[in-house]
Amino acid sequence: QVQLVESGGGVAQPGGSLRLSCAASGFTFSSYAMGWARQAPGKGLEWVSGIYSDGSVTGYADSVKGRYTISRDNAKNTVYLQMNSLKPEDTALYYCVGGGGPWGQGTQVTVSS
Length: 113
Fold this sequence. Notes:
By secondary structure, the protein is mainly β. The chain has no helices and ten strands.
């Protein structure tokens, strides 16, 4: 069955960086577009970024454009989200999405001084 396991979250200072990873299994990873979404405390779900199955095309929400970079390694069945210049408003539970199955548990990112 589809399984997505996120990791790499934590606490960062404003202006800092974190790199999220999502290990995927249970489906043909290289055939699926993948992405990241987030949910901040008390707010709705927000799409953050997406990447084509072959990595040739990426997209970003305006709120993270220029600061976040999505990438993938199809040999490792893993998608990444490099987050730079973090802001307090980036604080959220980050989910990896894709593969046509249930989402993972998410990884918490907290940006605070």
